[in-house]
Amino acid sequence: MKTVGFIGLGTMGKPMAANLIQKGFRVNVYNRTADKAQELVALGAAQAASPAEAAKEADVIVTMLSNDQVVLDSLFGENGLAHSLRPGQTVIDCSTVSPATSRKIYDELASHLVDFLDAPVTGSKPAAENGTLVFMVGGQEETLDAQRDVFEAMGSKIVYMGPSGSGSYAKLAHNTMVGINALGLMEGLSMVTKAGLDPESFLSIVLAGGANSRQAELKGSKIVSRDFSNQFSTKLMLKDLQLAGDVADGFQMPSPMLRTATGLFQMGLAKGLGEDDLCSVIQCYEDWMHMQVRSRDKSAEATTERRRNARIQLDIKLHLSVYQWEQEGSFSGQLIEGTLIDLSESGIRLVSSFPLARDMFIVLHFPKEADLPPITARIIRIDPDNGLFRYGCMLSGLPPYVRLKLEEYIRVRSEEQEQASQS
């Protein structure tokens, strides 16, 4: 049985190496963070101190790394593979890199009589764990045939695409579609959520209809259950789209959907979602529509409906900061009391004895127990009521997480008041 050197034990690499071990290959593993190798050592792998050491006794070396520079460093850097490679060995790079990088490695290794295949994968973490990855392979076809047993230990489909760089071209075109399809799913789910429909019910329609896609199957349930655990990260999706954009530029080919997708995943990265699964970019849409896309909490909906049907009025005491312009460049403010009596999708209703004006901005200060920051609102409606004033207020710039905390606080208070009314 062949000895395989495996470099890179991240989300994909670790389960791929585990499958090689379980299929009977002798495996030497290396990862920059050494602790990630411990599970594989327990399965029977040998741990190497460097890429060069992992390759020294290997017949085949597999790399599964994050980007072009990391791949090049693992090959040609200090203690890289090239320092211990010998004629007749084969290097298989399963990373997603530019076709130019793949061809550069092929040419360099060929001068040392070492074979090279660019063989990126599709299938994400579940397929890596199940050994059902799909490989798209560039390089010499006879090299692929000689190493087919290695591929079959990790995947269920191996497609030869052509000469060196062909696998990388195929992967970038493939991931262009992945990114676009994922965002199409997110937009559809956002639209029905904003319309007040249940996104989980809508997803069942998608999965049964013409809008279905592999992304809907893989990411739909993750989105509606708020599971952003990493299967394929936002930062890697963005990296692949940027590489695809470079290819499109080189071809002088318009790619409007690719450009739009790249921009949206850049927003996700800027929002701090780089290490989360790519489906976490739904949170950008949620910021725009001030709502979360999630399975409906039926018990909470029932409580709200009971409250509305029973016309149980909220009675949450607040302090309101009210600011008025005195003259250009200065204003005065004061703190008044008010009562929150209802919450709607876009605003709240307050009661106060203090007269205010339309379009005035106020700042709401909730009780300490609510653990809510001050919230700004604009008065859009005033209804006098026996010496009191009922104000309809639109909330301004409310982040989704604050909106959810507000809804939860009001839900708990309404349940308390409902129970009190029944006792």
UniProtKB/TrEMBL annotation:
Residues 305-410 form the PilZ domain. One of its GO terms (biological process) is organic acid catabolic process. GO terms for molecular function: cyclic-di-GMP binding; NAD binding; NADP binding; oxidoreductase activity. Residues 3-162 form the 6-phosphogluconate dehydrogenase NADP-binding domain. InterPro entries: 3-OH-isobutyrate_DH-rel_CS, 6-PGluconate_DH-like_C_sf, 6PGD_dom2, 6PGDH_NADP-bd, HIBADH-like_NADP-bd, NAD(P)-bd_dom_sf, PilZ_domain. Residues 165-284 form the 3-hydroxyisobutyrate dehydrogenase-like NAD-binding domain. Belongs to the HIBADH-related family. This is Tartronate semialdehyde reductase.
